Every structure is written in C-alpha cells, then in structure tokens.
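Appendix B. One record, verbatim.
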Amino acid sequence: MKRIVILGAGESGTGAAILAKKEGFDTFISDSSTIKDKYKELLNQHRIAWEEGNHTEEFILNADEVIKSPGIPNNAPIIMKLKAKNISIISEIEFAGRYTKAKMICVTGSNGKTTTTSLIYHIFKSAGKNVGLAGNIGKSLALQVAEDKHDYYIIELSSFQLDNMYKFRANIAVLMNITPDHLDRYDNNFQNYINAKFRITQNQTPDDSFIFWNDDPIIKKELEKHGIKAKLYPFAAAKENDAIAYVEDNEVNITEPTAFNMEEEELALTGQHNLYDSLAAGISANVSGITKENIRQALSDFEGIEHRLEKVARVRGIDFINDSKATNVNSCWYALQSMKTKTVLILGGKDKGNDYSEIADLVHQKCSALVFLGLHNEKLHQFFGDFGLPIADIQTGMKDAVDASYKLAKKGETVLLSPCCASFDLFNSYEDRGDQFKNYVRHL
C-alpha cells in the first residue's frame, strides 16, 4: 500500500487526506500548528492518523508522495529534507485532479481572481449546472471529488498552488493580470512569480481555452515564450484588433465563440477592474455553451464577494468600505481608482516586498489622510511621510485604526480599508481583519 503524507491540516489538507484514504492509500496528516476542531472531527470520522504542533520526521520521510499545503514555503526545513530524498511533493489540486473527469475552469492572477471565480460559479449555478467551487474559496477540491462529484469545478488558483501542479489540466484557464506579489516567496525575482502564474496553461491542448487580459504588458510579452496550445480568448476594456471581448458604445460585446452583448450599465459589478472580471467570466461561460440569456441574467444579478470593496456602513456622512482582500499594492490601486470622494486610507500589515510607487499618484489625488495599521510601519512612513497628509500610526489593532480613521475623515468622505499587505502581523487572516473592521465600524 502506497503511503501519502499531507502537510497542513486546513481545508485543502483535510480534503486531500479524506480523498487519499478513500482511494486506498496509507494516509497520515501532519500540521506544525494546532488543527481546528472541525478538521479533527472529519479526520477522526474517516479514521485518518494525524498530529499537530510538530512534524515528526519518521512519520513523514517514509512517504511515497507528499501533498503540501500552499502556505508552507518551499524552503521550509521539512520540505528541504523531502526534496533531498527525492520524494514527490504535489498540491491538493494536483492530487484531486487525478480522480475526476470533470471540466476544470481555473482562474489565477495577481488581482481579481476571487471575484472572477465567484462570478463564473454564479453563472454556472444559475444556469443549472452541476458545479463546485474550489481552490482558495469554497470547499476543498479533493473533498468534493471524494464526496460530491460535480461535472464542473470553478477553481481559484494562487501561485503557491500552481507551484506544485505538474500534470493537472485546465480545460479553461483564466489569467486576469500579473503584477508583483509574493516576491518574498520567489527569491524577490519577478520572473519566477510570472512563471508560476503561467503554469495554469501547462498541459492545455488545442481543445482548451486560455482567457487573458489583452492589455497586460507582462502577459503579452510572455505569451510566445510559454508556447500555449489552447485557443486564445483575449479581452480588453475597449475594442482593439485582438480582443474578442470588449466594451463599445457602452455595450459589452463578446464575439467568440457565440456572439453576445448586453448594456454595460446592466452589469452588477461597477468600476474598471470589475469590468475585466465580468468579461472574463462571460467568456468562460460562453465557451462552455451556457446560453446568452443565462449569462446576461447572472452578470446582472451577482451580489459581489465579502471583503472586496464591500460597503459596510455610512456613519454621520462618512462611508466605510472593507477591501481587506487587497493584500497587494495593485489591488489597492484598483480600490483607490474607484473612489469617488476624498478618502482616508487604512493600509499596512505584513509587507511582501511591496513597491508603493504604483499608488503614489492616486494617494496624492484621492487621499485626505492615511492610517498605518501594522506592527512595523517604518516602510510606510518612509514612503508616504513627505506626502503632506495627516497620518495616524496604529500598532495595537483594528479598533484603534477605525477610531483614528473616523476622527480623520470629514463628512462626505470615505474610509477605505485596503491594506496592500498580508494580515498575519495582527490578524489571523484577511477575513479576520475585514470582520474586525466591520464590527468596529458598526459600533461607532
């Protein structure tokens, strides 16, 4: 009996363990942190051996194959020891893909992938398709393959997941954009990160589809280099030679494979960045044969996602917006671009090698004050300190950040939480950060 070891007992790891057990593997799961009770219960139900608070090498280094949580860096000591023994290390997505013949619609990009993935899922679900949502959102793909058996999976893929995917094939691959992100995990080498994103196209055939933003300079430069075999479906904000989806005269147009159009004002999501999400989702559904009527209806009634430009409340004439999912500078750029009033911007957290020059002009144009929220705000002071804006330095937590932003904002202005950074210095996750923001705003 082959032995599978899973490192990390979160959503993806627990799902992978359950699928491995079902497929007859000798299965063991190890987490260096504490395993949540809900996952312990699942593992116990399926009689899967587990450990927490430690990686016991004698139980791990005898594996035939290891499934690694995307959160574990490739240079972690246990990973280096596995590599030294030439033990195969894969992702949960790679493993799950071996046990299903479902169609895979996969979305990646530095920004917009969660909204686009959710929107595609909404279109498929509204059209009555047997569809699952997986990857960075939804239930673990492996758990769904083990227990639910869908015809389609809509999967949000991070670069970390793509790093350990080798034979997995995306029937439809969507690449929203590429901007510097997670460079601390890629030896501060942007090309390494670019290569990780383009792994979404590996193993595609001429029968598959590659959907991408045609105006992204990085994507356009890299296209030929990666020898993509899939049919190309480029989209852009305005009509141009190559784009098969665009807006012209306030009308959304998709020209291939089936002609589709709808009024731009009917789209549920507003703003330039959301237009790209709607175009990519519309093409994905169109390529999959979903009717124009279903696509049009779903694009017009989608309700958006939590922690992405989420309106929280208006307090004494001040609007509060939760964009906690903006964990990189480019996401914050999109958020600031969409602001229609002067804005108090809350930013900061665990810096990932950020270059804040991308938002410098927008901060000058849009911001009336800045709130730095993090344990180490020195880099923020260094970059923004001479902008001439009032600054509050908060190292204690969200309540103080909300109170400070409320005092700095004037009636008719907006307070925007769009941190540019990971959350792990003061919060458990970007969801925790956003939830705390909403809670303290509602208690003002």
